[in-house]
């Protein structure tokens, strides 16, 4: 079982959007997936509620998890046959961030290409590095033009973090999909938003499982513990 932590010390950078989209992408790839909502605001749980209410599906599994119980619940997932657990982490919660980083096999840090977001991203990267974790930074809500994105890429390189080779742009499909408990690749399968998520998932899959492995594939309909 692999653990992917989606984390940033600032809100509004798309953590839950990416966490839910990656969970669905992994499920579509044949994996048994659980998404742990560690954020007291419970946005991922709200997404799952909407998903059930609108008839879009009961999976992937989304659980509201107190970070103090994280090791125990992860062990239950491991015994229950989960292939991937995604941790949707809150901003400005150092204790929760520490708990998530300590168990993560991959750390994904979303950031906008804006000053305050870059500052928070820098803090999150350094926190991950202090705990011996290699951070992967993904640029989100990217504008179509302007120098900000390239400047942010240079900052990521200076921090010696990995830069995800796909940027997530500001696209309506992301917000519209969330309203009904979907993801961009479900809402508009042939859209640019869906293509970006697929590339992000492929990058994450390689980082977690290696270039020659797609991880353990199982029936998509099976529920993990």
TrEMBL record:
Residues 4-183 form the CobQ/CobB/MinD/ParA nucleotide binding domain. Pfam families: CbiA (PF01656). InterPro entries: CobQ/CobB/MinD/ParA_Nub-bd_dom (IPR002586), DNA_Partitioning_ATPase (IPR050678), P-loop_NTPase (IPR027417). This is AAA family ATPase. It comes from Aquamicrobium segne.
């Amino acid at each position: 079982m692999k653990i992917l932590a989606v984390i940033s010390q600032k809100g509004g950078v798309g953590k839950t959007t990416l966490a839910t989209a990656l969970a669905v992408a992994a499920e579509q790839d044949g994996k048994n997936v659980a998404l742990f909502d560690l954020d007291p605001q419970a946005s991922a749980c709200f997404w799952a509620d909407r998903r059930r209410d609108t008839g879009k599906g009961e999976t992937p599994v989304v659980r509201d998890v107190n970070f103090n119980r994280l090791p125990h619940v992860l062990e239950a997932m491991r015994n229950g046959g989960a292939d991937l657990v995604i941790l949707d982490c809150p901003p400005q919660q150092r204790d929760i961030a520490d708990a998530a980083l300590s168990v993560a096999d991959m750390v994904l840090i979303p950031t906008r290409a804006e000053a305050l977001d870059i500052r928070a991203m820098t803090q999150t990267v350094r926190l991950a590095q202090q705990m011996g974790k290699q951070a992967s930074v993904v640029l989100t809500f990217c504008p179509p033009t302007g120098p900000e994105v390239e400047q942010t890429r240079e900052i990521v390189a200076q921090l010696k973090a990995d830069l995800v080779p796909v940027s997530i742009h500001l696209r309506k499909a992301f917000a519209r999909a969330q309203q009904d408990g979907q993801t961009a690749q479900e809402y508009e399968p042939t859209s640019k938003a869906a293509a970006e998520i697929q590339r992000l998932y492929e990058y994450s899959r390689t980082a977690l499982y290696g270039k020659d492995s797609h991880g353990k594939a199982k029936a998509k309909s099976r529920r993990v513990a």
